[in-house]
Specification:
Keywords: Cytoplasm, Exonuclease, Hydrolase, Metal-binding, Nuclease, RNA-binding, Zinc. This is Ribonuclease J. The protein is an alpha/beta fold. It is about 30% helix and about 25% strand. The protein has 16 helices and 27 strands. Strands 8-7-6-3-2-1-21-22 form an eight-stranded mixed β-sheet. A hairpin with a 2-residue loop joins strand 11 and strand 12. Helix 4 packs antiparallel against helix 8 and helix 6 runs parallel beside helix 7. The protein starts with 5 loop residues before the first strand and ends with a strand.
């Protein structure tokens, strides 16, 4: 009798980190499997550790190898950490993509705004609908989140059903879109759920996430009580928050001016898909300066301190149309993502120095998370009754707290895993059965680089200690044809004694060349290596750092 197909799961991103989500499910045996991919997102570069790197993406080399067996890519929702890598990576896969209407429309708008984006077809699935993707039957179950049309995915197979939650929360009073479908989740629990692959972002926070309706009330109160101009910044994708800001502006008899391309794009898609039906038309930045101060509200990008976004330019007083002055207010209707604290703090300080009142979630309920806290995680477990729970979408602390909570809630099996772990979900005992290649790709300008790329490693070193360049012209007889050229970049001009570094390095180059036997002087590679070592040593002696040193030897 033939053995039944195994159902396996592997995260290629999004485990042990927040962002860069990519999960794969396989059905078959170890010789032949059909694969389903869920989400394909990015995380963002950190200038301190990854200078010049804008985006980080999951390594998809395993899926490239399995391309003929990849049945499709299904999107839970349209946040960048879940769909931001598609434009760059889909050409390597060319698989069908499935998403609901809003996600598909936002993706289409993103492609239209990108220069030379490939044509990427997306099949639109109704919210609550079911589709067959190879041997996988995928059901889109509505959940509340901070963007329209977020869905948990019930992945039905002959080997059992998996609930992949995506990003979710329980919000009984969302201001826009459908609440989390408790009824359908309870039904799934009664039908039997093999595994729950669950969001762990807020697993360290007790209680429940407040509702969007509470935030909307707070924003109305703050805007109505403001005296001068008001600017509000939030995540551009949070359409419910955009609607709340529009309602607050209407209640305070203010016009909404939309500032920033990402915000304009989301507003356009939200109107096209009906999520801003009945909401007043917004104005363009050109009219901002012509409106009375108490009749305008600027809705801005830049809540995470992005240097090129609208709010950073306003805070630096270099935005062509939008200015703020003493007595005006800025509402940060957002949470600062870990790693962005410095950039956001700099904007807040610049605004305060201009006399602007800054209102944040530290003092007012102007933001709520789109992720479940501990009581919500317990509710999900009680509804779905999974045989196995695997925490995902979180750093190590979040995953472990979610795992402890699940064990305490009576889940029979709980597995904490890492990116690249291949997990057998069923039939039979679940567990890690292997490993698939995983890693990171860096978007460096328009080029995709491996994380071990020499360019990235060298740039990090140069950011720390500058670079020394030396050019030497030698005759065929091994004599200097001219004085060496020395160029120091990012290195102090003088040492502690006040001696110029250019002179120190020049002397080290001359003494090294003159001290070498003629045979080594006639070997360009040997000469370059000797000079490189000497230059790094002398700079280290006077500065305490060893910069990269590039030596060019020319034979004349």
């Amino acid at each position: 009798m033939a053995r039944p197909d195994e159902l396996v799961f592997a995260p290629l991103g999004g485990v042990g980190e927040i962002g860069m989500n990519l999960s794969i499910y396989g059905l078959g045996n170890r010789h032949q499997r059909s694969w389903l991919a869920v989400d394909l997102g990015v995380s963002f570069g950190d200038e301190e550790h990854l200078p010049g790197i804008d985006l980080i993406m999951p390594d998809i080399s395993f899926l490239e190898k399995e391309r003929k067996n990849l049945m499709g890519l299904v999107l839970t929702h349209a946040h960048e950490d879940h769909f931001g890598a598609i434009i760059d990576l889909w050409p390597k896969l060319k698989c069908p993509i499935y998403a609901t209407q809003f996600s598909a429309a936002l993706f289409e708008a993103k492609c239209a705004a990108e220069r030379n984006a490939p044509v990427i077809p997306v099949t639109v699935v109704p919210s609550g609908g079911r589709i067959d993707v190879g041997p996988f039957n995928v059901e889109f179950i509505p959940v509340a989140h901070s963007i329209p049309e977020a869905h948990a995915l019930a992945i039905h197979t002959d080997a059992g059903t998996v609930l992949h939650t995506g990003d979710w929360k329980i919000d009984p009073t969302p201001t826009l879109g459908r609440p989390t479908d408790e009824k359908r989740l309870r039904e799934l629990g009664e039908e039997g759920v093999l595994a729950l692959i669950g969001d762990s972002t807020n697993a360290v926070r007790d209680g429940r996430s407040p509702s969007e309706a509470e935030v909307a009330r707070t924003i109305i109160d703050l805007v109505k009580s403001a005296k001068g101009r008001v600017a509000v910044t939030t995540f551009a994708s949070n359409v419910a928050r955009i609607k709340a800001v529009a309602d607050a502006a209407k209640a305070a008899d203010r016009e909404v001016v939309v500032v920033g391309r990402a915000m304009e794009r989301v507003v356009q898609v939200a109107r096209e898909t009906g999520y801003l039906d009945g909401v007043q038309n917004f104005r363009s930045p050109e009219v901002y300066g012509h409106l009375p101060q108490d009749k305008v509200l600027a809705l801005c990008t830049g809540s995470q301190g992005e240097p090129r976004a609208a709010l950073a330019r306003i805070a630096n007083d270099d935005h062509p149309e939008i200015t703020l002055n003493r007595g005006d207010s800025v509402i940060f209707s957002s949470r600062t993502i870990p790693g962005n604290e410095k950039a956001v703090g700099s904007i807040i300080n610049n605004l305060v120095l201009q006399g602007v009142e800054v209102l944040t979630d530290r003092d007012h309920l102007v933001h709520v998370s789109g992720h479940p806290r501990r009581d919500e995680l317990r509710d999900m477990i009680s509804w779905v009754k999974p045989q196995l729970l695997i925490p995902v979408h979180g750093e190590a602390l979040h995953l472990n707290e979610h795992a402890k909570l699940a064990r305490a809630a009576g889940v029979p099996r709980v597995l904490v895993i890492r990116n690249g772990d291949l997990v057998k979900l069923g039939p039979g005992d679940p567990g890690v059965v292997g490993e698939v290649p995983s890693g990171r790709l860096y978007k460096d300008g328009t080029i995709l680089e491996d994380s071990k790329s020499r360019a990235v490693v060298e740039r990090r070193r140069m950011a720390f200690s500058g670079c020394a360049f030396v050019a030497i012209a030698m005759t065929a007889q091994g004599e200097l044809a001219d004085e060496p050229e020395v160029d120091l970049v990012g290195i102090p001009e003088k040492n502690r004694a006040g001696e110029p570094f250019d002179d120190i390095v020049f002397d080290a180059v001359m003494s090294t060349v003159e001290g070498l036997p003629k045979a080594r002087r006639r070997d360009p590679d040997a000469l370059a290596e000797s000079v490189r070592r000497a230059v790094r040593a002398v700079i280290n002696e006077h500065w305490g750092k060893k910069p990269p040193c590039l030596v060019h030897v020319l034979t004349v």
